[in-house]
Design goal:
Shape: globular
Structural class: alpha/beta
Helix content: 25-40%
Strand order of the largest sheet: 3-2-4-5-7-6
Bound molecules: thiamine diphosphate, magnesium ion
Distance between the termini: 56 Å
Number of strands: 22
Oligomer: single chain
Largest sheet: 6 strands, parallel
Radius of gyration: 24 Å
Strand content: 15-25%
Number of helices: 22
Length: 584
């Protein structure tokens, strides 16, 4: 066996795990890894990014798209700090990710040497596992362990620190074998009990979410929905788990949920939840189910036993992956006569909810997204970050089937550009539309340079309302007329894109969008569409002035955006808090 450096062993073990890309920003702390990557650059390219936050999001999106951990390389303190946003997103989104972080040499550790951080403490509450590899001969063990941990149970981020001297030391060691996520399957008796509960239900509803889904599990869900004749709701930003055009689709259960769907969740007698944690966003601020004992008979299926009963005590807790659960359950045996009759009305409610309403200004996002919904191919990928501008695509665009949604469950801004880079990198044949607010775009707009560098022809849309609109909306509700910290003076985004070497166009009226989009696609180049919207069009349901005026009127009611519910002014803080949570 030949002597190899820690860096070479690390790269060999990433190849043993069939990693196809590494994302990062270089640092002198891991030169030995960069050097080892040189020899395998065709098999494991290092995708050079412009900021570690962008790189971390790219790696996170890789995890979402493939189910295997995205590989991230960042340098010591500053790189690790910049990367934190993507690591936090991987944690909240249950996405497998492995962040390799440079570390000072073991000969100077704990002196607060240049850029030194104790990563175990730094990432202690964010990462699923944080460790430091002190000896090169243990690299295969740590890499295999990191893959297992990142993928198994509830997937999440692993951080491995790489002391500089470990990476250059030379040892003899064999590579670790390829590893997969640990399977989790349901006991047959529990599956029979679930069938019986569903069969006896009058108002059953299924909510799907979380990770550990693959195409087979998605297909199995569809077969199950058809056989059991159950309405399917997709959890917040997991709208691509079920074909939104399917007659059993009931809509998304997240921010701005259709009030009729929220009522269905609240009034369900049996709730079958698969893969979803039932987080704050999916439960409308923990209001749709009672903590800890839901009124609904809850059947909770999640690949991690640790999630089951962590907030809601289920009637039936099943530790299984979605795929394994669907393999075991018999849809026909779960079919209840009463629910079947209700499926069509659930889908009709969904269709009515996405039907257009008037929007102020020359650009009507409702019509633009409707057009995209009809125009985009069956396997298009749509990405976004956080902000009011996302509500249009969440509500109007139909995901599912082969269409993919890359969106942060964590509600983190700046995700739309880097995740689109990953989508197009992995799927050069697919149309990738990156949907951004003006605030969101500039959080990671520098990665347009990465798209240009790798000739990734995504369409980057910037919805420009000249403000951090979501926060302005909260401001108008809580402190009407007192605009503070939310105005933006923006660049000419189209000119900026052209300066990057991308195509850049400005859209100032609804009917300009279509032609600009087609030119972008035809160009075969990364393209940015700067869409200037009327600041009055701050939400799908109300205008800026409307919110302010309503709030200023004595005895009036602030609107809970998207929920259709209204909380009286001056009513307890609890209602206000719920209102805020639902729009964050
Ligand atoms: C990284 C990060 N910082 C801050 C926030 C808080 N935040 C949520 S939405 C939002 C404004 C988004 O602005 P923009 O992208 O312009 O979208 P708009 O709301 O105007 O449609 C802010 C600041 C966040 N969610 N993530
Ligand atoms: Mg904005």
């Amino acid at each position: 066996m030949a002597l190899r450096s820690g860096g070479e062993i690390l790269v060999a073990n990433l190849l043993a795990q069939r990693a196809t890309h590494a994302f990062g920003v270089p640092g002198e702390s891991f030169l030995a890894v960069l050097d080892a990557l040189y020899d395998v650059r065709d098999r494991l390219p290092f995708v050079i990014c412009r900021q570690e936050g962008g790189a971390a999001y790219m790696a996170e999106a890789y995890g979402k798209l493939t189910g295997r951990p995205g590989i991230l390389f960042v340098t010591r303190g500053p790189g690790a700090s910049n990367a934190a946003v993507g690591i936090h997103t991987a944690a909240q989104d249950s996405t497998p990710l492995i962040a390799f972080v440079g570390q000072v040499g073991t000969d100077m550790i704990d002196r607060e040497a240049f850029q030194e951080i104790d990563y175990r403490r730094m990432y202690g509450s964010i990462a699923k596992w944080t460790a430091q590899i002190d000896r090169a001969e243990r690299v295969p063990e740590y890499v295999a362990h990191a893959y297992r941990t990142a993928m198994s149970g509830r997937p999440g981020p692993v951080v491995l620190a790489l002391p500089e001297d470990m990476l250059t030391s030379r040892v003899e060691v064999a590579d670790a074998p390829y590893v997969e996520a640990v399977p989790a399957a349901a006991a047959a008796s529990d599956v029979r009990a679930a069938e019986a509960l569903l069969r006896g239900a009058k108002r059953a509803l299924v909510i799907v979410g979380g990770s550990r889904w693959d195409d087979a599990a998605r297909s199995a869900l569809q077969r199950f929905a058809e056989a059991a004749q159950l309405p399917i709701g997709c959890a917040f930003r997991h709208q691509d788990l079920f074909d939104n055009r399917h007659p059993n689709y009931a809509g998304d259960v997240g921010i701005g949920t259709n009030p009729k769907l929220a009522a269905r969740v609240r009034d369900a007698d049996v709730l079958l939840v698969i893969g979803e944690r039932l987080g704050e966003m999916t439960t409308s601020g923990y209001s749709l189910l009672d903590v800890p004992s839901p009124r609904q008979t809850l059947i909770h299926v999640h690949p991690s036993a640790g999630e089951l009963g962590s907030v809601y005590q289920p009637a039936l807790a099943i530790a299984a992956t979605p795929g394994a659960f669907f393999e075991a359950i018999d849809g026909a045996a779960a079919r209840g006569a009463v629910v079947a009759a209700d499926v069509a009305s659930a889908h009709a409610d969904y269709e009515a909810w996405r039907a257009p309403r008037p929007v102020p200004g020359a650009v009507d996002l409702w019509r633009i997204v409707q057009w995209l919904d009809e125009r985009l191919p069956a396997d298009a990928v749509l990405t976004n970050g956080a902000g009011n501008y996302t509500t249009w695509i969440h509500r109007v665009f139909r995901y599912g089937g082969g269409r993919r949604q890359l969106a942060p469950y964590s509600g983190s801004m700046g995700y739309g550009v880097p995740s689109a880079v990953t989508a197009r990198l992995l799927h050069p044949e697919r149309v990738v539309v990156s949907w951004n607010g003006d605030g969101c775009y500039l959080m990671n707009g520098q990665e347009l340079a990465t798209a240009v560098q790798y000739a990734l022809a995504g369409v980057f849309v910037v919805v420009d309302n000249g403000m951090y609109g979501t926060i302005r909306m909260h401001q108008e509700r809580n402190y009407p007329g007192r605009v503070s910290g939310t105005d933006l003076v923006n660049p000419d985004f189209a000119a900026l894109a052209r300066a990057y070497g991308a195509v850049g166009e400005t859209v100032e009226a609804t009917d300009q969008f279509e032609a600009a989009f087609e030119r972008a696609i035809a160009s075969g180049r990364p393209s940015l569409l700067h869409v200037k919207v009327d600041p009055q069009a701050i939400t799908m349901n109300g205008t800026l002035d409307g919110i302010r005026a309503e709030k200023q009127r004595p005895g009036s009611y602030p609107e809970c955006i998207g929920t259709g519910t209204r909380a009286p002014i001056g009513q307890e803080a609890a209602d206000q808090q719920l209102c805020l949570r639902q729009v964050r």
